[in-house]
Specification:
There is one protein chain. The protein has 60 residues and is mostly helical. It has one domain. The protein contains three helices and no strands. It has helices spanning 3-14, 21-33, 39-51. Helix 2 (21-33) runs antiparallel to helix 3 (39-51). It holds the Pfam family YppF. This is YppF-like protein.
Length: 60
Amino acid sequence: MDLNELLKRYESSKQYQATDQQELLTLAKKLYISNEISFHHYKGLAKQINTIEENAISTP
């Protein structure tokens, strides 16, 4: 799973776009805890989320 997939999944579950990085980190953590993504993917997503600016969170 990449960042774009996570954004789309967030939007489809919440019916609105993420407004900050913490919302995306929370979703990634929930997916990892429920074994929907591996630790490797979680770690990669967390790294990507932490490197983007808050204003840059949007679906392409």
